[in-house]
Amino acid sequence: MNKDDIIGTHFLNIAEISSSSDSGGFPPTFGPCFINFYGSPREYSDLPDEYEDLNRGKGEGVAYRGRALIELTTNVGDMPERPVAIIEDTELERVKVFMRTRRYCLHATFMEATNISVADAPIEFEFSIGNYGNKLDDTVPAASSTTQPTNAVYDGNHFYFLPWLDTKPCVAVNADWEDISFRIDNYNCLCRICDRLEENIKMVKNSYRRDLPTAEIAAQLIGLMDTLIIDTRKDLSRHDKSVWTDLDSELHTMRLSELARIRMEVERLRENATDIKEVITECEGYLQRLRDISIEPQNSLPDVIIWMLCGNKRVAYYRMPACDVLHSTCEDPDAIGKFCGKVQTITMKYPGKKGYSKHHWDIPCILRIQIWLGLVRNESVWTNTIHSKGEVSVVAETYENQMNVVGMWTSKGLTRPKFSDARGTVSLHKDNFVEPQGWKFEGDWFISVESSIQYDLDSGRKVFLEDVFENESRLIPGGQWQAANVTWTDVKGDRATDRDEIQLPEGWIWETEWQVDLNRAVDEHGWEYTLSTGYSSVEKNYHLYRRKRWVRRRKLTAAAAAKRASAIKKTKKHHKDDDDNWEYAKIFATKFHTNRAKSDLVRRRRWHRNLRAVKPNKLPVLEIKDGRDSFTYAPRIFLVPNMKPRKFQLRCYIYQAQEILLSPPPVVVEIFDYDKFGSPEYLGRTMATPMIKLNPNEARTPKLAWSKIERLNEYGGELLAAFELLLDEGADLPFAPTKKDNIYIVPPGIRPVLRRTAIEVLCWGLRNLKRYHLLDVHSPSVELECGGNIQKSITIKNVKKNPNFSDPVIFFDVMLPKEEIYTPPMNIRVIDHRAFGRKPIVGVAVLKRLMDYYCEPAGSEDEVSELPEGIVLPASMAASRDRVAIEIEHTGESKTDEEEAPKQKEETDWWCKYYASRTNTEEIRKSGDYLERGYYTVKIHECELEKQEDYHGFQDLIQSFSMHRGKNKKGSREDDDDTTVGEFKGSFRVYPLPADPNVPIPPKIFRSLPPSNIVHCMVRVYIIRAFDLSPKDANGLSDPYCIVSIGKNKIKDRENYIANDLNPTFGRMFELSCQLPLEKDLKISIMDWDLISKDDLIGETVIDLENRYLSRYRATCGLPKSYCTSGINQWRDSQTPKEILDAWCESRGLPPVRYISNTQLLMDGRIYSLDDYEQNLKKHEHLGAADQRLALHALLSQTIVQEHIETRALYSPLQPLIEQGRLQMWVDIFPKELGPPGPPFDISPRRPKQYELRVIVYNTSAVILNDKSITGQQMSDIYVKGWIRGIDKKEKTDVHYRSLDGSGNFNWRFIFPFDYMPAEKCVVISKKKHFWSLDKTTQMLPPVLQIQIWDNDLFSKDDYLGTLELNIHSMSKPAKTDKKCNLDQLPDYENPSNSKNTTSLFEMKQMHGWWPLVNEDTKNRQLTGKIEMSIEILTAEEAAQRPAGVGRSDPNANPHLDPPDRPATSFLWFTSPFKSCRFIVWPNIRYYCCIGICIAVLVVFVLVFVYAIPANLASKIVK
Question: Which of 329, 393, 576, 1125 would be a feasible disulfide site paired with 638, CB 3.0-4.6 Å?
Answer without folding.
Answer: 393
